[in-house]
């Protein structure tokens, strides 16, 4: 992973056997583990579809779902340089982006396919990303839709609410010592 993002060409981060065991504990096995690989321009449509699937229920609950807009917002902000694809068994299971900003890194577009949610994969990926930002002494910010279950994941990893509006909750996490 490079300083400004979650991956660079050829870099991967692989889940440990312990993490893979944690995913499977009490649940069906995920297979041979997980890894992050640098995103490519060609990934944009598959990630846009994943975003639409993952966000649909929350956006509908908030009265903001638009099938075209949910995909187009990803296309408009997609940066392969700052995005990594989450692979499980060699197949796309999700993505995550870390984009540099003035006073922090922004964690964006962190989506996992529904069949991979609730099994520890999100925590493992987030932990890998945060280990990198912590090692660099970087603050991380994000926004999550109000009422989203993802907020609990972020809180478990040290994010606190910075502000909120009728749609989004903005959270921040200061770097921690190893």
In DSSP terms (H or I, runs of 4 or more residues), the helix count works out at: 5
List the helices and strands in order. EHEHHEEEHEHEE
Low-confidence stretches: 1-31
- Strand composition percent: 25-35%
Mean of all residue-level pLDDT scores: 86
Q: Report the count of strand segments.
A: 8
| Overall body shape | globular
Give a short summary of the structure.
This protein has 178 residues and is an alpha+beta fold. The chain contains 5 helices and 8 strands; from the N terminus they run βαβααβββαβαββ. A hairpin with a 2-residue loop joins β3 and β4 (91-100).
How would you sum up this structure, described in words?
By secondary structure, this protein is of the alpha+beta class. 33% of the residues lie in helices and 28% in strands. It contains five helices and eight strands; from the N terminus they run E-H-E-H-H-E-E-E-H-E-H-E-E. It has helices at 17-24, 44-61, 67-77, 121-135, 150-156, and strands at residues 12-14, 34-38, 83-88, 91-100, 105-112, 140-145, 160-164, 168-173. Strands 1-2-3-4-5-6-8-7 form an eight-stranded mixed sheet, with helices on both faces. Helix 4 links the parallel strand 5 (105-112) and strand 6 (140-145). Helix 2 (44-61) crosses helix 3.
